[in-house]
Design brief:
597 residues, alpha+beta, Uridine Diphospho-n-acetylenolpyruvylglucosamine Reductase, domain 3, Alpha-Beta Plaits, GMP Synthetase, Chain A, domain 3, six-stranded antiparallel sheet, 38% helix, flavoprotein, alkylglycerone-phosphate synthase activity, transferase
Length: 597
């Protein structure tokens, strides 16, 4: 890519690319927003007074008493006293960096969005929270923070959007050193855009929907749309090797990444050129990707952009059963015909989605009855077996029409047929809504969470069957009678697919529901690995999946990571405790001190 300033449009502070926002410390309602009711402005069912079908579904499937709502505890009045770090704070203030030791600000940044995290916040059982929150506004300020943290022996945990579902931002309970949460929310600018080479540079703290909005105003898109798109940040995407729902057209984050800047304890790690490809030894971009805050702080990212598509069209397909749908998706992938998004949901999720339909008038009721007659009598399908695929096409009109025709022809060979664009759009949006429903369900004694994996095509259907069977057996062992276990195929590749599982149960009468949930999910993860699946497709490892990391990368892989960690972070200030199990990690004692001993 040319480095000529004439080809890059710089975007200065306060200019069109700025996404201005007050420090998160000024907004104590942040956690309430994240676990609030479904936003009415963004989703069709948001703000609806009544969803009778969903009410009936919840009562029938989870045996829930909707009159017994139990909300979480209020925000506490007292917080753990921060571990003293006066010299560090003096350094920070001397550099003009905003910081706070306010209890609520610290509490907000002690957790992500795992079931364990949310339950901990609802019950007020948090054990370790950051001692100070820092708000750098530039790469240079991050360098100053890292230098001071090494000098004063302070732990740094980078914090982006707080959407982690791996426990990666939680504070290690045994850490005795001061912990600083490095909040990147004020590093949220587009620094420049290169229209000719279709790349743009952003600060790492920009939130997904803000990044996309800024680009759309200029006629471009990144196209990276993970489920956490509303809150997650660009730096977080890189740190966890994220994947988006439209990866078939735009790529995963590793495909979009051109250049990344990361501040380590040894200095700044950055490639000298931003070119399409380079043969120059190991690619250190991939050292940063998936590092989960353990090697340094990501500050700036150069990513690929694309012109906005002319056409955006949804579609859906009905299959006789889940297996037929998998075989269809496999054939679509074999011929490399995937649209921007193609996702397959099993029958359990289909029923769940139908329950969320907004009631219509008499004509709508008649229409629904006719659809059932068409499916059961004309198409001779069993409603308790059918599976649904949702489609999203993006591109030129003629291109999209041709694409649709080819996919519908493949679907027909596997017993599939079109179910219309409206169902496709609703199914696509449901992905974003599920997280809000999960948090609302906690008020009614339902614990639920999702977990994902990647698997080869030849093992995909068997893995889905085995994991669901495993969860059912574990529920029986724990005498859990009212639960849901379902799955969907969300991303497809030449050699395999990503599979998501959703599991929740009524925990009325159980004193330790989250512990039980975690035990069952761990059994499911063991079954995933036994069935040929991976530790994670895009959620990352964090702390909750670290027990499986060694078997996933080998002992040599663990030692290679630890050697890299020792080189880039000799004083272990990036001691988030992610990736490798606690018993395999080096102690918090600085390497320099060990050498003296």
């Amino acid at each position: 890519m040319s480095s000529s300033s004439a080809e890059r449009t710089p975007v200065a502070k306060g200019n069109e690319g700025t996404v201005a926002s007050a420090p998160a410390s000024m907004d104590p309602s942040v956690p309430k927003k994240i676990v609030s009711a479904i936003p009415k402005q963004r989703y069709p069912i948001g703000g609806k007074v009544s969803l009778p079908h969903f009410r009936d579904y919840v009562i029938e499937n989870f045996n829930v008493d909707l009159s017994d709502r139990r909300e979480g505890v209020p925000v506490p009045n007292e917080y753990p006293a921060p571990v003293p770090c006066p010299e560090f704070l003096a350094d920070i203030r001397g550099h003009g960096i905003d910081c706070t030791q306010n209890g609520e600000d610290r509490l907000i940044r002690c957790h992500g969005q795992t079931l364990h995290d949310v339950h901990m916040m609802r019950t007020g059982t948090f054990k370790r929270i950051p001692d100070v929150v820092l708000f750098p506004t530039s790469h240079e300020q991050v360098e100053q923070i890292v230098q001071s943290a090494n000098k004063r022996n302070v732990v740094l945990i980078p914090y982006g959007g707080g959407t982690s579902v791996s426990g990666s931002v939680t504070c290690p309970e045994g850490e005795t050193r001061p912990i600083a949460a490095l909040d990147t929310s004020q590093m949220n600018r587009m620094l420049w855009i290169d229209r000719q080479n279709l790349v743009a540079c952003f600060e790492a703290g920009i939130v997904g929907q803000d990044l996309e909005r800024e680009l759309r105003q200029l006629g471009f898109t990144v196209g990276h749309e993970p489920d956490s798109y509303e809150f997650s940040t660009l730096g977080g995407w890189v740190a966890t090797r994220a994947s988006g729902m439209k990866k078939n057209v735009y790529g995963n984050i590793e495909d979009l990444l051109v250049r990344v800047k990361m501040v380590t304890s040894k200095g700044v790690l950055e490639r000298s050129l931003a070119v399409p490809r380079v043969s120059c030894g190991p690619d250190f971009n991939h050292l940063v990707l998936g590092s989960e805050g353990t090697l340094g702080v990501i500050t700036e990212v150069v990513i690929k952009i694309r012109p906005l598509p002319q056409v955006k069209r949804y579609g859906s397909l009905v299959f006789p059963d889940f297996g037929s749908g998998i075989r269809c998706l496999r054939e679509v992938a074999r011929e490399r015909l995937q649209p921007a998004s193609i996702r397959l949901i099993d029958n359990e999720q289909f029923v769940f989605g139908q329950a969320l339909k907004i009631p219509g008038g008499p004509l709508a009721t008649v229409g629904e009855k006719l659809k059932k007659v068409y499916l059961t009598r004309w198409k001779r399908l069993q409603l308790d077996r059918i599976a649904i695929a949702t489609l999203l096409f993006e591109g030129h009109d003629a291109q999209v029409k041709q694409h649709e025709a080819k996919i519908f022809a493949i679907a027909k060979r596997y017993g599939g047929f079109s179910a219309g664009s409206s169902n496709g759009e609703k199914g696509y949006i449901l992905t974003f809504v599920i997280a809000y429903i999960r948090d609302l369900a906690l008020d009614y004694s339902i614990v639920a969470e999702s977990f994902e994996t990647s698997v080869s095509w030849d093992r995909c259907e068997a893995l889905c069957t085995n994991v669901k069977s495993c969860v059912r057996k574990e529920c029986a062992k724990h005498n859990i009678q009212h639960y849901l276990i379902s799955c969907r195929v969300t991303q497809t590749y030449d050699a395999g697919a990503c599979v998501y599982f959703y599991f929740g149960f009524n925990h009325a009468g159980f004193s330790n529901p989250v512990t039980i949930y975690e035990e069952i999910e761990n059994k499911a993860r063991d079954e995933i690995l036994a069935s040929g699946g991976s530790i994670s497709h895009h959620h990352g490892v964090g702390k909750i999946r670290s027990r499986w990391y060694p078997q996933s990368v080998s002992d040599v892989g663990v030692q290679l990571y630890k050697a890299t960690k020792r080189e880039l972070d000799p004083n272990n200030i990036f001691a988030a405790g992610n990736l490798i199990p606690a018993q395999l990690q080096d102690t918090n004692e600085p390497t320099s001190l060990k050498a003296k001993l």
